[in-house]
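User: Please fill in residues for this 155-position structure.
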């Protein structure tokens, strides 16, 4: 069982159709596919699914088939963690430096990797916090779906 799988989906907001899937278990275990079946097989039995805006975007478009692939997975949303753990940072979007033109479609596999890198930075920032601050965050945010997966993982 993979502990965490980082995911990103590209979807058409008008039709709600998923156009492209990306996922990463590590830098070496990476998937970029248009096949829902292949994507679901990659997620199989993950304990955590992580991504940048996974709660309000990816799970909104694909909750049904993601839940079927990894029924007990908890969501870790790097977007919501970023301002909490890096409050002095002026913005919290993933850098899209792999896109040469703004009209290009994003590469979800690259975005999954970027989420993974950000998550590792967030974990380091979390562990650098005083125990009392981690406990306060846990008590305040433990029941919020944007933070509960991370807090479960970080315990």
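Assistant: Residues filled in for all 155 positions:
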């Amino acid at each position: 069982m993979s502990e965490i799988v980082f995911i990103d989906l590209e979807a058409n907001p008008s039709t709600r159709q998923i156009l492209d899937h990306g996922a990463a278990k590590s830098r070496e275990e990476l998937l970029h596919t248009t096949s829902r079946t292949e994507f679901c097989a990659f997620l199989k039995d993950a304990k955590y699914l992580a991504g940048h805006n996974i709660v309000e975007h990816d799970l909104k478009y694909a909750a049904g088939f993601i839940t079927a692939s990894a029924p007990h997975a908890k969501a870790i949303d790097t977007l919501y963690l970023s301002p909490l753990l890096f409050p002095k940072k002026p913005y919290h979007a993933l850098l899209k430096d792999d896109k040469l033109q703004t009209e290009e479609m994003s590469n979800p596999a690259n975005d999954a990797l970027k989420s993974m890198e950000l998550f590792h930075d967030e974990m380091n920032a979390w562990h650098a916090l005083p125990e009392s601050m981690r406990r306060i965050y846990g008590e305040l945010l433990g029941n919020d779906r944007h933070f509960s997966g991370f807090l479960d993982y970080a315990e």
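For context: The radius of gyration is 15 Å.
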